[in-house]
Amino acid sequence: MLDWDNGDNRDLPLYQAGQAIVIDAYVAGGEEPYTYRWVTSKGEEVGTGSTLAVTATVPEAYRLFVTSAEGQTVTDKANVFVNANELSVATFDDLPLEKESAWPGDNLVEDPGAFDAFFSGSFHFTNSYMPEYNYWCGYSFANETSTIFEGLQHQHRNVVGGGAEDTANYGVTFMDYADTRIYVTHAEEGLTVPGMYVTNSAYLVNSALNGDGFCPQFTHEDKDYYKLVIQGLNEENEVLGKVEVMLIDFSEEEPYVLSEWKYVDLTPLGKVHRLRIDRESTKQAYAPAYACIDQVGAENPGAGLPSIAGGSGLGMTVAADGILSVLGTDAVWSMDVYSTDGIVCASYNGHGASTVSTAALAPGIYIARAVSEGASATLRFVRR
Fold first, then answer.
1. H/E stretch holding 73
2. Which DSSP string do the residues of 247-259 spell out, in sequence order?
3. What pLDDT is attached to residue 85?
């Protein structure tokens, strides 16, 4: 056992960045000597003794593996919340995960069903897991690339297949019976979260479009909809504001189903201590309470870009890494490529359908804007 009380993991011991953390282990049984191995949730080995001493940087889970002289093993973990003075984006890619799999929770919680926690970037996500019932709620993470839903074994899949901005891992929330608060900071003034990406769960879309044994099919006649509600909370968990994102909408003549990763601006919430995700739907009691999230805390990829008026017809696509194709015009066109903070990184000119090389750009995320005879097009792409 660890001399550490994870308790209710929504109220962990609080450390400041730079503060010393000491965790002691107590082992009984088996044959000595024991071998100790401390590993972070990121997979980094940080200690080999019975006591772990580290310096607080970001929220972290420290797992201890102990092996006796005759090969018996035991494991435990300590969750540590580190107060963030500035945000580090929760990409979920900093959490080790086998390909095409999901992490529903840890089975180390002494009280099954109690709230555990996991950490990505500087954010703290709540999780409750009952492996004996194959049940979890709150938050989990996955990297499944299939968008097909054929049963609960596929409950972690999304409609895109992978993470936002062409990353592997992404977060999943199941909101029923769950504490869906995301802990941002305990700093007195709170912190402003720029934004995050959201998309639909494959489970929800399957139920909405086809119906299932529990959820009726969404219909235009009933003006069915399903939207995500992201609240900003203060330290006392009082709601400061909310941002809503429509995921499915049958209230208009043409049904809308979000099928890509959508960036959501959270700056209207102001400085917050926590975020909380909920949903609202005409099928509130029936529709699966799932959604997928990624890049929590990310800056707006289009912030600072100039507005360009124009019609349609012009198009762009990524022909290959380092090559953009301009489509849909026979006229002269010009293109500027911006970084996500609005700085022009490259400019191109051409005529008709043709390609340009972006190989000189450093790896990262960019936004291309093209103009041709009153038409305009915008493309966000990744340079690998």
1. strand 73-83
2. EEE-SSSS-EE--
3. 78
